[in-house]
Amino acid sequence: MNRFINATVFTGSGWLTNATVLTDNGRIQEITTAKPAGNEADTVVDLKGDYLVPGLIDLQLYGGNDQFLNDTPTPETVRHIYDTHLRNGTTTLLPTINSTSLDVMLRATAAVQAVRTENPFGVPGIHIEGPYFNPIKRGAHSAAYVRTPAEGELETLFSQNADAIRILTLAPEILTQEQLALLNRLKHPNTRLSLGHSNATYQQATDALNTGFIPLGTHLYNAMRGYESREPGVVGALFDHPTVRVSLVADGYHCYPPTIRIAHKILGDRLFLISDALFTRYPGGPPPRAEFSLGEFVVHYEPDTNGPGESARGRYVNNAGTLAGSALSIIDCVRVCVEKADLPLVDVLRKATEIPADVIGMGDKLGRIAPGYVANLVRLDQTLTVKNVWVSGEAAV
Question: How confident is residue 230, by pLDDT bands cut at 50, 70 and 90?
Fold first, then answer.
């Protein structure tokens, strides 16, 4: 039995002060403000008033500190990605690949499946971002790979490890109705389709969302037709739809802070955070990789000079000047939302825990501090700096 005492516990709707959380056998047993009876065999952790929050969840990231899933789609790379982000408080993640060949898609999915079997709550699957995109909105994705599905490609993609494909981002307007229907038949019940990298009109996007099998939108505002008064576009369709959930990269580069705040006002609990990290750093670790090849592009890291020391983060841009991804982890996105977009911490934490857990169908096990939930826990101080991380109740950081 572990006892976390003197904690300020995030309840999902507020804070429970001077609280104790009891965990055993990897699960949360009790949350109380009383003084629970313990025994000498218990492990006691005194949080001294610090925040205790659920393990953070990131449904879109591509690399760790220096390894990238597209480059080396192996279980070792997946473990490296997980270990890097774990040090920043992310206890559940979907390793992501961007537009690539079918062979790499299959190898990456197999690699994630291998790690999923040993760490099902840490790496519950893969996010395949592309290659079925509108070329006009491909962003930093390689033109050599962005395409419509070749004959037999969807059948092959879902013939192996289909249950590991948790999210597939696509542009529905570039697929025929027959292809969309085929995809709906082939995909595993675990798989969520997400609308992204799309130049769809408002009506096209709304029609796709109303089919009932595209319940998500990928990185709001970015690589999608924007909002205009006479053509609300994809952004307008996502804002206007009553049930779709939408991810957002809150790094200060992909989205200016007021646009984060506006999205929160409109979408509320239908909005969740992703890091979109190509690479990132961890406390005490080296800077993220400075330069690498991504398709026909060379991508390089531009540090953020506004933050001191390890609090500084940056972005990745390609040689065409296009934003290619972040150098963050989810806790950095949480801080941007609170410190720059002026959002309430309670709302932001839900977007990094409970809501993404629900998105991937794991909201009954992850994303909350409640009895029966997996004891993935993060200690944050008042500056929202990660101090400790526990996975299934065991100290990890």
Answer: very high
What span, in angstroms and rounded, lies between the C-alpha atoms of 379 and 389? 6
> Quick one: pLDDT at residue 93?
98
Report pLDDT digits (tens) over 254-285: 899 999 999 999 999 999 999 999 999 888 88
CATH number at residue 6: 2.30.40.10
Taking residues 114-130, what's their average pLDDT?
98
**99's tokens:** 């537009």
120, 233: one domain: yes
The pLDDT value recorded for residue 306 is 58
Q: Which residues are catalytic?
A: 276
Q: Domain residues for 389? A: 2-53+371-395
Average pLDDT, the chain: 94
Total domain count, the chain: 2
Residues 19 and 108 grouped into a single domain: no
Answer yes or no: is pLDDT of 291 > 90. Answer: no
Q: Evaluate if pTM is beyond 0.85.
A: yes
**Residue 36: left if φ>0, alpha if ψ -120 to 50, beta else—which one?**
beta
| Whether 100 contacts 70, CB under 8 Å | yes
User: What CA–CA distance (Å, rounded) separates 291 from 71?
Assistant: 13
Task: Give the model's pLDDT for residue 252.
Answer: 85
Q: How confident is the model at residue 290 (pLDDT cuts 50, 70, 90)?
A: confident
Pairing outcome for strands 291-294 and 271-274:
unpaired
Task: Let me know whether 77 and 35 are in one domain.
Answer: no
